[in-house]
From TrEMBL, chain A:
<feature type="domain" description="ABC transporter">
    <location>
        <begin position="4"/>
        <end position="252"/>
    </location>
</feature>
<dbReference type="Pfam" id="PF00005">
    <property type="entry name" value="ABC_tran"/>
</dbReference>
<dbReference type="GO" id="GO:0005886">
    <property type="term" value="C:plasma membrane"/>
</dbReference>
<keyword id="KW-0067">ATP-binding</keyword>
<dbReference type="InterPro" id="IPR032823">
    <property type="entry name" value="BCA_ABC_TP_C"/>
</dbReference>
<dbReference type="InterPro" id="IPR003439">
    <property type="entry name" value="ABC_transporter-like_ATP-bd"/>
</dbReference>
<protein>
    <submittedName>
        <fullName>ABC transporter</fullName>
    </submittedName>
</protein>
UniProtKB/TrEMBL annotation, chain B:
<feature type="transmembrane region" description="Helical">
    <location>
        <begin position="294"/>
        <end position="312"/>
    </location>
</feature>
<keyword id="KW-0812">Transmembrane</keyword>
<dbReference type="GO" id="GO:0015658">
    <property type="term" value="F:branched-chain amino acid transmembrane transporter activity"/>
</dbReference>
<keyword id="KW-1003">Cell membrane</keyword>
<feature type="transmembrane region" description="Helical">
    <location>
        <begin position="21"/>
        <end position="39"/>
    </location>
</feature>
<dbReference type="InterPro" id="IPR001851">
    <property type="entry name" value="ABC_transp_permease"/>
</dbReference>
<dbReference type="InterPro" id="IPR043428">
    <property type="entry name" value="LivM-like"/>
</dbReference>
UniProtKB/TrEMBL annotation, chain C:
<feature type="transmembrane region" description="Helical">
    <location>
        <begin position="95"/>
        <end position="116"/>
    </location>
</feature>
<feature type="transmembrane region" description="Helical">
    <location>
        <begin position="191"/>
        <end position="213"/>
    </location>
</feature>
<comment type="similarity">
    <text>Belongs to the binding-protein-dependent transport system permease family. LivHM subfamily.</text>
</comment>
<feature type="transmembrane region" description="Helical">
    <location>
        <begin position="41"/>
        <end position="59"/>
    </location>
</feature>
<feature type="transmembrane region" description="Helical">
    <location>
        <begin position="12"/>
        <end position="29"/>
    </location>
</feature>
<keyword id="KW-0813">Transport</keyword>
<dbReference type="InterPro" id="IPR001851">
    <property type="entry name" value="ABC_transp_permease"/>
</dbReference>
Length: 252, 383, 291
């Protein structure tokens, strides 16, 4: 059985079929990219997995468990973290507290313990803080720890969002256009990090991306979508040479 | 300027960033402890109200400031706390029991308000909380077997462990101060724990909070419950301080005053809630002062500039007539709110931060440091 | 049955007044995404202006009415210029607070100028009644209903059929983009405030024969009109009037058929029930943030 599986996933808005009977599987430890023109339904698939939308039909499995009906907050508890296309950070909080929210799924303390800040809470907080520091080190975010998000440039925010997702120690991470809005140098960094995530941290990556050079550099397999349907699946070069994919991009 | 060198993860967790805070807050606490032996009984009474208002301010801050859920219904929570105390007192329930019972009941009702509020945002939430408060007000006026209706209820003098504590005694003041300090410390603890961070996460982006594993609905209800419970505790003290309660004390006007507390205090900080409470409680003595002393002073100044006795007298009576005009308080309220929103959106605490920064950076301070970004697209509607 | 119709008509008439105030809320909200908590107080001020022109200066009813509307339109622009424009673009909460402050100020100023007594305006509709069989309908109530229908239609046409109306809708969607497209956003906002103050004045003057004018009337009625606007979905012109009529009818029915005390609470209970089922009101659109 596959590690993560979507079966006949559909999302219809009235007559519009944003996602139309899409099936695919992700193997443990691989980097799978979803490509496709604007409006092909790539981000919709992510929003279906993280339960922002409810699928019209179809099922989603993770580690052989049906997660189609799980409430949104439990998706993260199962070990699936995500980033967003247009950055959804907690604007008026520091980088550190943003990353600590990423630790939320590991928090075990009760409200009354927190009100008194008992030693157990303190010990937990120190543990969380240590884990966050490891991520900060991994992504070179040391200069920004105590800065407010609202004052940071776009490129840094993008990395912080990735960091927040990593702080939850996910098994599967969904990256929604990790390179959008980044310059060439930052995109290079991003590609190294994505590969390190796989090799060093053992995280499975599912990502939506437009930048083909990034896709080629990091992906093990690629899925091409158009109008909510799967056009092609396979290695990066196979998919890019597939006649349907070429037609979809060139508008033939 | 002080640079902080952190050598331990503990440094990010502790209550105050550096030891200087312990000194300044220690001095402040000491001053507050000797206050009853220094200040007049009138000012002491105002100080008790400051403690109560600040407690409610902190409660409202948890809900509105940190979780981002606006409420114009906190007067109702205060009323529920006050009436629970007054009702249980009739059956000779001891103070600690009805104090905590009031907090618990208000907390439960707060959670019950929180559930329907889950799907509401912005103005819809505001109107829902207003509706709740109006309904509570009407129930208090109509449920005569329990609340004694519009005639109100007398609240007996507080008795703590067999000792009576009159409402103008130093002990009562210490009790209110203790409740305030404990509330503030509890809130600070909450803010450095997962729950507090989840609140802030919900305020800034519900979608992201959810995708990080925060059960948004549960935490919103928690925030409502905590905020209501603290307000309920404050309600007990409020009832004892006034020694008489009736439904028309807990109107929308009072809820608006609580919002003003956190607005004028500002910067969405606990400091702000306390400063705001001081401000709103001290408006009354200020207006009295305006009525009693200022006309004479102005006449005195006019006389000093060579105005005749008759002119000075007429100036005095004119100014006095103006100062005692009906509704002057409302106009001053209105002007203060508008001026704060226009010119000091970060509130009193924001002003203090600016002054502090000015001296720290002198002569390099830039006025634009605190300039807020304006957003002209509809962002709030799509939250 | 007769009682029922009688109550229905007076409920609808009262509801139309709520609807007119709610219309003011909606207009300002549509154009600037500002919730104007001082809307009821603008109505109150309009009523006092009309009283000054008609009751004190002895002008003809219609001349005084028009004068009050014109004066209040100017006042609306002034209020916008002084209080709202400097903080456009700030969080909604700040602007709500500013308008609450404005409301406080207007109430107490009105109390200082016109005193705290209830005032009454003589209108051409004050006395007459319309008899249909044994049904007796007062002209003053019918006049309110008719005027609301006319105003609502005019405003709807204005917003949907004129260039200026389109400009207003555009600037409400995205002020910056509208500005770049050459729409004079500041003037548009100013005009919206003028219109909403004028509509509020109409409500105030029409109301004068039904309830009297006093400095707190705006607060009391504003608190009823606000649920009306929310019920209608805050942003829909017909929604505001429908919401207002619903609130008015519920209130008058509850006052007649239910025990004492329900009259003031019933509208809010209904409002809470509606919000539970449809969090965006009856005519509102649920907009989802795109991620």
């Amino acid at each position: 059985m596959s590690y993560f599986r979507a079966e006949n996933l559909s999302l219809h808005f009235g007559g519009l079929k944003a996602v139309d009977a899409v099936s695919f599987a992700v193997e443990k430890g691989e980097i799978l990219s979803i490509i496709g023109p604007n409006g092909a339904g790539k981000s919709s698939i992510f929003n279906l997995i993280s339960r922002i939308y409810r699928p019209t039909s179809g099922r989603i499995f993770f580690e052989d468990q049906d997660i189609t009906e799980e409430p949104p907050y439990d998706i993260a508890k199962l070990g699936i973290a995500r980033t967003f296309q247009n950055i959804e950070l907690f604007e008026n909080a520091t980088v550190l507290s943003n990353l600590l929210v990423g630790r939320h799924r590991h928090s075990t303390t009760q409200l009354w313990q927190e009100l008194l800040f008992l030693p157990s809470v303190r010990a937990n907080e120190k543990m969380h803080r240590r884990r966050v520091e490891q991520v900060i080190e991994f992504l070179d975010l040391e200069p920004y720890r105590d800065k407010l998000i609202s004052g940071l440039p776009y490129g840094v925010r993008k990395v912080i969002e990735l960091a927040r997702a990593l702080c939850s120690e996910p098994k599967l991470i969904l990256l929604d256009e990790p390179s959008s809005g980044l310059n060439v140098e930052e995109t290079d960094d991003m590609s190294f990090w994505i590969r390190d995530m796989k090799s060093e941290l053992g995280i499975t990556v599912l990502m939506v991306e437009h930048d083909m050079s990034l896709v080629n550099r990091v992906s093990d397999r690629v899925i091409a979508l158009n109008y909510g349907r799967v056009l092609a699946m396979g290695s990066p070069t196979e998919v890019q040479q597939h006649p349907d994919v070429v037609a979809a991009y060139l508008g033939a | 300027m002080r640079f902080l060198f952190k050598t331990d993860y503990e440094d990010d967790i502790k209550l105050f960033p550096h030891s200087g805070y312990w000194v300044s807050y220690g001095i402040l606490l000491a001053l507050l402890l000797i206050a009853p032996y220094v200040l007049s009984s009138y000012l002491m009474s105002q100080l008790v109200f400051v403690c109560i208002y600040a407690t409610v301010g902190v409660a409202l801050l948890i809900l509105t400031g940190f979780t981002g859920q606006a409420s114009l219904g906190h007067a109702a929570f205060l009323a529920i706390g006050a009436y629970t105390a007054a009702y249980l007192q009739k059956y000779n329930v001891p103070f600690p029991v009805y104090f905590f019972a009031a907090g618990a009941l208000t907390g439960i009702i707060g959670a019950m308000v929180g559930f329907p509020a889950l799907r509401l945002t912005g103005i819809y939430l505001v109107i829902a909380t207003i509706s709740f408060a109006l309904i509570v007000e009407e129930i208090l006026a109509r449920w005569e077997s329990v609340t004694n209706g519009n005639e109100g209820m007398r609240v007996k003098t507080l008795s703590l462990l067999g000792v009576t504590v009159p409402r103008d005694s130093p002990t009562f003041y210490y009790l209110c101060l203790a409740v305030l300090v404990l509330t503030i410390v509890g809130t600070l603890n909450l803010l450095r724990s997962p729950t507090g961070r989840a609140f802030v996460a919900i305020r800034d982006s519900e979608t992201a909070a959810r995708s990080m594993g925060v059960n948004v609905a549960l935490y919103k209800v928690k925030s409502f419950a905590i905020s209501a419970a603290i307000t309920g505790f404050a309600g007990v003290l409020f009832a004892h301080k006034l020694s008489f309660i009736s439904p028309e004390m807990f109107t929308l006007q009072l809820s608006i005053e609580f919002i003003i507390v956190i607005l004028i205090g500002g910067a969405f900080s606990l400091h702000g809630a306390v400063l705001g409470a001081i401000f709103i409680v001290m408006i009354d003595p200020f207006l009295t002062y305006l009525k009693d002393d200022v006309p004479g002073m102005i006449a005195g100044i006019a006389a000093a500039f060579g105005a005749g006795k008759a002119t000075a007298g007429s100036i005095q009576s004119n100014v006095a007539a103006f100062a005692s005009l009906n509704g002057l308080k409302g106009a001053i309220y209105g002007i203060i709110i508008v001026l704060f929103v226009l010119f000091e959106p970060l509130g009193l605490y924001g002003r203090w931060l600016k002054i502090k920064l000015f001296f720290q950076l002198f002569p390099l301070y830039k006025r634009a440091t605190f300039k807020r970004q304006k957003i002209y697209v509809k962002s709030e509607r799509n939250r | 049955m007769l009682d029922f119709v009688q109550q229905l008509v007076s409920g609808v008439a009262l509801g139309c007044v709520y609807g007119l105030i709610a219309l003011g809320f909606v207009l300002v909200y549509k154009a600037t995404e500002v919730v104007n908590f001082a809307q009821g107080d603008l109505m109150m001020l309009g009523g006092f202006f009309a009283f000054t022109f008609i009751g004190m200066m002895g002008l003809n009813y219609w001349v005084g009415f028009a004068g009050a509307v014109a004066a209040m339109a100017l006042f609306g622009m002034l209020a916008e210029r002084v209080v709202v424009r400097p903080i456009l673009g700030y969080p909604q909460f700040s602007i709500i607070m500013a308008t609450i402050g404005l409301g406080y100020f207007l109430r107490s100023i009105a109390g200082m100028i016109w005193g705290t007594d209830d005032l009454k305006i003589e209108t051409p509709f004050s006395q007459g009644v319309l008899r249909i069989g044994s049904l007796v309908l007062a002209y003053d109530k019918l006049s309110v209903i008719a005027a609301t229908m006319i105003l609502c239609t005019l405003l709807w046409l204005f917003f949907n059929k004129t260039t200026l109306g389109t400009a207003m809708r555009a600037s409400s969607e995205n002020m910056l983009a509208a500005y770049y497209m050459g729409i004079p956003v500041k003037r548009v906002v100013s005009i919206v405030w003028a219109i909403s103050a004028a509509v509020a004045t109409c409500a105030g003057v029409l109301l004068a024969p039904i309830t009297f004018i006093h400095s707190n009337v705006g607060l009391v009625l504003g608190l009823k009109a606000f649920p009306a606007a929310v019920l209608g979905g805050f942003g829909s012109i017909p929604g505001a009037v429908v919401g207002g009529v619903l609130i008015g009818v519920i209130e008058s029915m509850a006052g007649f058929y239910l025990p004492e005390g329900w009259k003031d609470v019933a509208p809010y209970l209904v409002l809470l029930a509606v919000l539970l089922l449809k969090p965006e009101g009856l005519f509102g659109h649920h907009v989802r943030k795109k991620v």
